[in-house]
Structure formats: C-alpha cells, structure tokens
Amino acid sequence: MSQYIPQIKKHATRLRLSGIGSNITNLLLEAQNDAPSYDEFVFKLFSHEVKEREAKQQLLRMKLARLPVNHDLEQYDHSFTSGLNPTQLNQLRELNWLDQCYNIMLTGPSGTGKTYISAGLGFDAVQRGYKAYFRNISDILSTLRLKDVSQNAAKEFKRLAEAQLIIIDDVMTLPVNREDGNRFFVFINQVYETTSFIITTNKSPAEWARSLDDETLATALLDRFLYKCQLIQLKGKSYRMQNRKTIFENEKN
Q: Of 15, 69, 160, 243, whose CB neighbour count within 10 A is largest?
C-alpha cells in the first residue's frame, strides 16, 4: 500500500476530514481495483467525507432533540383515539406546515396520544435535517430562568432561539408563577415568527389563564400560538391504561 497513507491521515486530521482519514486505506484499495479517473476518484473521496459528516450531524441532532423513547408514527394505533385520521397524520408528516412556519396544538385528555404524535413529528423533522427539540414546559422555564447564570442553560437557550421546531409538552399542566409566565411570553414573542411549535396540552384557554394567574398574559400567548396554527382535538380512552403493564402473569387489565 502507498507510503503516503500515514501522511494523508495526518493531513486529514489537521483539516478535520475524519471521514477521509479513517477510510483512506479502503478508498485507495477500491481505486486500485476500479481504476477510476482522477476526477471520479476525487469526487468519491469528498462524497465519502460528506456522507460521514451528515451521519454524524444526524446523530447529534437526534441527541439534542431529546425525543421520548416511543416516537415511531408507523406504529401509531388510530383505534384508541379520534380526532386525527391516517390521511391527516400522513399529511402532517410531509412537514409542509413546518416549511410555512405553522404551529400545531394537540389537545385532549391524558393518554390520547398527544405526546406520541408530537414526538413522532419531531423525529420526522430531525430525519429531514431540521433543528427540532422536544422539551416539556418545565425544561423551557428552567432554561429561561438560568440562561444568564449558567453556561449550559445559555447554550440551550441559543439552540432553542435558533430552532426550526420546538415541541413543548404538557403546557399549563401545572401552575406557572407570574415571573416565569412573563419569561415564557418574552421568549415566545421573540421567536414565534421564525419558529414552528407543537404544543401539547390538556387545558382549555380559560384554564391557561388560571394556570398563569393572568388572563391578559394567557391571551397574548395564545394569540401568538394560534395565529398560524392547526388545532387538533384528540378524544378517546387512555392508551396507557388500556395497555397497562403488570409484574404478575395472566393478570388482565
């Protein structure tokens, strides 16, 4: 094999071409067997690097998205809920709404698939190369509180501020104090024109006002979320309760 390989690897490391550096031996062997033209070989060389980088970026996007374990919409069971039929779900999965900066608000009782659907759409977005993040409302509020005093929170805030899709789970499930509510509004007001949101909630607009203890603030938040938004009301029994797990054998739900 070529005496230049060690030096090629050093140069690749220096130039941060890890895909080429780690695979140069195999790439040269293939070239010896296939005898490509010079331009074809260079094309294959850099195509390999691009492919490796895209794979690493995909893994990083998935890690930062922090999706729940269950998010495969191919396995979504429509028999447990109503409000979103297979055709509508497939239309949402095309992500045209995301390109147009629309929001989705999923409402309904616990266990009707709000989190599952939102996480699945988030997974589709990550797979397509979008910057998408799944956070519950407590995560968001914690980041907003700490962004000026914590480096990790500052990095997280920057990610969220530059996101193309933010999924916020369980909005207004618990009361939010006025200071946190104001921080949340300032953030949403900052990004809502350039970022799409998927909101899951089991609270009505009137209950948002009670959770925030501020009707004006609740109205302002809803105004921004609902300006360009598809509302989806899910109904049905809890999937988790219908498929309750047990440690005892032969015990029925």
A: 160
